[in-house]
Design brief:
This protein is an alpha+beta fold. The chain folds into two domains: about 1-195 and about 360-420, FAD/NAD(P)-binding domain (3-Layer(bba) Sandwich); about 200-355, Helicase, Ruva Protein, domain 3. It has 15 helices and 21 strands. Strands 1, 2, 6, 7, 8, 9 and 21 form a seven-stranded mixed beta sheet that branches. A five-stranded antiparallel beta sheet has the order 12-15-16-11-19. A hairpin with a 2-residue loop joins strand 7 and strand 8 (about 145-150). The structure holds flavin-adenine dinucleotide (FAD).
Length: about 425
């Protein structure tokens, strides 16, 4: 059976729901296909079911967090639909929002369901037809239109198609990377997908022994050949497998990418005293060394720095600096002091992998941005084909940035289809 349509949108996640609501509002007959029985599964799971739906950052600084290429690509999208525009739209849909630390924005109810329901209602009320349990299997150009082959055997013909089928992280939610095969079959360039926003594993027993310790005030650096390649100041959590927390997860795609490329992994370091420079740490150590009664160095260090450190972390720092656990403050030599400063400013934590797509919140990689017009999300080589959301080679850090990018790229695609 063949069925003719003006527009098919594939994937009823954050981007697909937004795009469908907008195209339908513009009067374009819109069919939204979703392979699972419900819409917005990842919206429901997001932010620990609270849904960190966007950021308090302005458009410029928000897009800058997607790296150089991503920032350039997203400039127009975030200018057309800024984080504040997303909040205003949600207010208009009956979802009040509140700001939270680390530049996050949540629904005031803290219920992700409210966001998902509002998006779905908006799309339906605007006139979009949402079809659940409709899995796209094949996409190909046919006589100047698009042929969409569904799992049921049905063929749909559409003038325009917006692909919003997401990445391949958290595959249990329905996103299993189906979109990559369609794009590949069209000869489009894909950046190999790797897991992002995911915890890291460590082969080092001492790291596992710190499981449960959270460091709130810490800066994470990745270095290669002694040069810092990425950094992020966000909390870190030691786990029984390695490291987690936003500081580490935000940089995890670099570990995954190096593994994917067969390169040496970057080294990961924790700056445990980010508020003090090396000279200030050295001065603090000298003060500690001059303490009366020459207490144990590990005790004095835990309390004597500008930012107190958990004792078990101090032990790891001392080991890395080559100082024994029984060492007294007045026994520190000059070379040891130097090493101690270095390990406080950059404790090296061995990591060997990410926990993979199963645990990753986002996929980095996807359709190469060079294939897409950043002003319309149109695939340059195929008129009538648009791609938005996580299927693109875009990945931002934790903090509502990925929903923001999904909504903004969907907005551009919807406008382009509606004006086209
Ligand atoms: C646990 C978790 C928590 C997260 N928390 C946050 C957060 O708080 N803030 C934030 O900004 N981001 C968060 N993210 C990331 C965010 O969910 C994604 O970046 C965002 O959902 C991407 O939107 P999308 O519409 O591109 O893709 P998705 O939301 O993944 O939607 C894609 C849709 O396409 C459907 N689909 C796939 N294949 C087919 C097919 N063959 N046929 C038909 N339909 C198909 C899928 O079932 C899915 O419904 C989180 C992710 C996870 C996994």
């Amino acid at each position: 059976m063949t069925n003719s349509r003006a527009l098919c949108i594939v994937g009823a996640g954050a981007a697909g729901l937004w795009a469908a609501a907008r195209t339908a509002s513009f009067g374009v007959p819109t069919l939204l296909l979703e392979k699972t029985p419900r819409t917005g599964t990842k919206v429901l799971a997001s932010g620990g079911t609270s849904c960190n739906l966007t950021t308090t950052l302005a458009s410029g600084p928000a897009s800058a967090l997607f790296g150089k290429k991503g920032a350039r690509f997203l400039r127009t999208a975030l200018r057309v639909l800024s984080p504040m525009d997303v909040r205003e739209r949600l207010h208009g849909l009956g979802v009040a929002t509140v700001e939270a630390p680390l530049e996050k924005v949540f629904p005031a109810s803290r219920r992700a369901r409210d966001v998902r329901d509002a998006l779905e209602r908006w799309a339906r009320e605007a006139g979009a037809e949402i079809r659940p349990n409709a899995r796209l299997m094949e996409l190909r150009p046919k006589n100047g239109r698009w042929s969409l082959g569904l799992e049921t055997g049905e063929e749909l013909l559409a003038d325009d198609v917006i692909l919003a089928s997401g990445g391949k992280s958290y595959p249990r939610t329905g996103t299993t990377g189906d979109g990559y095969a369609w794009l590949e079959s069209l000869g489009l360039e894909l950046v190999p997908p790797v897991p992002a926003l995911v915890a890291l594993s460590s082969p080092a027993g001492w790291v596992h022994e710190l499981a449960g310790i959270a460091l709130e005030n810490v800066r994470v650096h990745l270095t290669r050949g002694g040069k810092t390649i990425r950094r992020r100041a966000r909390p870190v959590l030691f786990t029984h497998r390695g490291l987690s927390g936003p500081g580490v997860m935000d940089l995890s795609d670099a570990i995954a990418r190096a593994k994917e490329n067969g390169e040496d992994l970057p080294q990961l370091h924790l700056d445990l005293v980010p508020g003090s420079d090396r000279e200030e740490v050295r001065r603090a150590l000298r003060k500690i060394e001059a303490r009366r009664g020459a207490p144990l160095l590990r005790r004095a260090l835990a309390e004597g720095l500008a930012e107190p450190l958990p004792r078990r972390v101090v032990r790891a720092v001392l080991v890395q600096a080559g100082c024994g656990g029984g060492m007294r403050t007045n026994e520190l030599t000059r070379p040891q002091r130097h090493l101690l400063v270095e390990s406080l400013k950059g404790l090296t934590v061995p990591v060997d992998a990410t926990l993979g797509f199963d645990r990753a919140e986002v996929t980095a990689g996807g359709l190469a941005l060079s294939e897409v017009d950043p002003g319309t999300m149109a695939v340059r080589r195929y008129p009538g084909l648009f791609v938005c959301g996580e299927l693109l080679d875009l990945a931002g850090p934790i903090g509502g940035l990925n929903f923001q990018a999904a909504f903004a790229t969907a907005e551009l695609a919807a406008r382009a289809v509606s004006c086209g």
